[in-house]
Design brief:
- The chain has 346 residues and is α/β, with parallel strands linked by helices.
- The protein is built from 13 helices and twelve strands.
- The chain has helices at 2-7, 13-20, 24-31, 39-51, 58-65, 81-96, 110-122, 140-147, 171-184, 200-215, 232-243, 257-269, 303-319, and strands at residues 70-75, 100-105, 127-130, 152-155, 166-169, 190-194, 225-227, 251-254, 279-281, 298-300, 329-332, 335-337.
- The strands form three sheets. It has a six-stranded parallel sheet with strand order 2-1-3-4-5-11, with helices on both faces. A four-stranded parallel sheet has the order 7-6-8-9, with helices on both faces.
- It is elongated, with a radius of gyration of 26 Å.
- Mean pLDDT is 91; it is low at 1-8.
- One of its GO terms (molecular function) is transcription cis-regulatory region binding.
C-alpha cells in the first residue's frame, strides 16, 4: 500500500529522500551524477527513483543549469525523404551526446520558419539546425537568433552571406557531373530545370551545368533553362514548355528528384521514350528513384553524414566558450547513382 501512496501524485525528489531517509539535496546530487556522492548511494537513489516512477522536471532542471539539452531542427518538408534521412543523422549523434531533438516543419514558408524559431526560443533550446525554406528571401530572423547568443547551423540549404556555419553538398560539382553524365551518353542539347534563383543550392547547380557545357564547347542557350519551384507539377510544366520549343532538348537535368519525376511523367504523357528519345537526370537520390520505370539517374547527397556533420558543428559551438569553431563550412561530395534514365549508350 505504501507504493500506491507515492504513485497517487507526481513523485518528487522529496518523496525519494523520505523513502531513503536521506536529505533531498543528496538525492538531487545523486540523480545528477555529482562526484561527491558515492557509487553505492547513487545506485540506490536511481533504483528507488525507478521504483517510484520518478520523472525528472526538465524545465526546472534547465532553469537551474541554463541548459535544456534540446536541439531545434527546422526542415522544409517532412514529405521529402531527403530531410527525414538528414534528421536520422542529426538524432543519432545528438542522442549519443545526451541531447533530445525537436522537429519543426516550415512547409517551405518563411512565415512558418519564423514561427518555428520563436517556438524553439520558448522551448529554451540550446542550439538550432535549419534548412532554409524556398519562400525565404530575407534572413534577419536567423541573425536575430545568433545575436541572442543561440548557436545556429545551416544544412543543405544555406546562405553564404550570413556567415553562419553550414554543411552542404558540393552543388556546383554535382551540377557539373549531372550535365557531363548526359554529355557522355551522346546527348547534345541539354536543358536544365532549376530551382528558385535566390537560393544558393540551386544557383550553384545551375552554374555547374553552365560550366560543363562550356568545358565541352557547347553553346549555352538561355531558352533551355527554366526556373521551377522544386515539385512534380513544376517539372511537368517546365518539360511541356521545353518540348514545345522549335528545337526541343534531347536531355533534361532536373534540379532535384521530385522535379525529375514530373519530367518523366510529362515525357510519358507526350509519348517520348526515356532514355532513347530523351535523357533525364535528377538530384538527391529520393527513395522512389530506383522503383520507377525507367529508374532515375541521380546524385546522392550523403544525407545521414550531412545530419551528423551539422550536429557536430552545433555541438562544437555549444561546447566552446568562445562560440567559435575551426571549420565554418563543410562540403560533402555528391555521389553519382547511375540508372536507366540517362543510359542511352549500353
Amino acid at each position: 500500500m505504501q507504493t500506491f501512496a507515492y504513485l497517487s501524485h507526481k513523485v518528487t525528489i522529496a518523496d525519494i529522500a523520505r523513502k531513503l531517509s536521506i536529505a533531498p539535496a543528496t538525492v538531487s546530487r545523486a540523480l545528477n551524477g555529482h562526484p561527491a556522492i558515492s557509487e553505492k548511494t547513487r545506485k540506490l537513489v536511481e533504483k528507488t527513483a525507478r521504483k517510484l516512477q520518478y520523472k525528472r522536471n526538465n524545465i526546472a532542471s534547465s532553469l537551474r543549469s541554463g541548459k535544456s539539452n534540446l536541439i531545434g531542427v527546422i526542415i522544409p518538408s517532412a514529405e521529402i525523404n531527403f530531410f527525414g534521412s538528414v534528421v536520422h543523422g542529426i538524432e543519432k549523434l545528438a542522442n549519443e551526446k545526451g541531447y533530445n531533438v525537436l522537429i519543426y516543419q516550415s512547409n517551405e514558408s518563411n512565415e512558418q520558419e519564423r514561427k518555428g524559431l520563436e517556438t524553439f526560443l520558448h522551448a529554451r533550446v540550446d542550439g538550432i539546425l535549419v534548412s532554409i525554406a524556398k519562400d525565404t528571401t530575407e534572413y534577419d530572423h536567423f541573425l536575430d537568433i545568433r545575436e541572442q547568443g543561440i548557436p545556429i547551423v545551416f544544412f543543405d540549404r544555406a546562405k553564404e552571406e550570413l556567415d553562419i556555419p553550414a554543411v552542404v553538398v558540393d552543388d556546383f560539382k554535382g551540377g557539373y557531373a549531372a550535365t557531363e553524365e548526359l554529355l557522355k551518353q551522346g546527348y547534345k542539347r541539354i536543358a536544365h530545370i532549376s530551382g528558385p534563383a535566390h537560393m544558393d543550392v540551386f544557383k550553384k547547380r545551375l552554374q555547374g551545368y553552365q560550366a560543363a557545357l562550356k568545358a565541352h564547347k557547347i553553346h549555352f542557350d538561355l531558352q533551355l533553362v527554366v526556373e521551377g519551384y522544386v515539385s512534380i507539377g513544376s517539372g511537368q510544366q517546365a518539360t511541356e514548355q521545353l518540348m514545345r520549343l522549335p528545337e526541343p532538348p534531347d536531355a533534361i537535368f532536373a534540379v532535384e528528384d521530385f522535379t525529375a519525376l514530373g519530367v518523366l511523367k510529362q515525357l510519358k504523357a507526350m509519348g517520348k521514350k526515356v532514355p532513347q528519345d530523351i535523357g533525364v537526370v535528377g538530384f538527391a537520390n529520393e527513395m522512389f528513384g530506383e522503383h520507377i520505370t525507367p529508374s532515375l539517374t541521380t546524385f546522392d547527397q550523403q544525407t545521414v553524414t550531412m545530419g551528423k556533420e551539422a550536429t557536430d558543428l552545433l555541438l562544437q559551438l555549444l561546447d566552446s566558450s568562445s562560440k567559435t569553431i575551426a571549420q565554418q563550412k563543410i562540403m560533402l561530395e555528391p555521389i553519382p547513382v547511375i540508372r536507366e534514365s540517362s543510359q542511352r549508350k549500353k
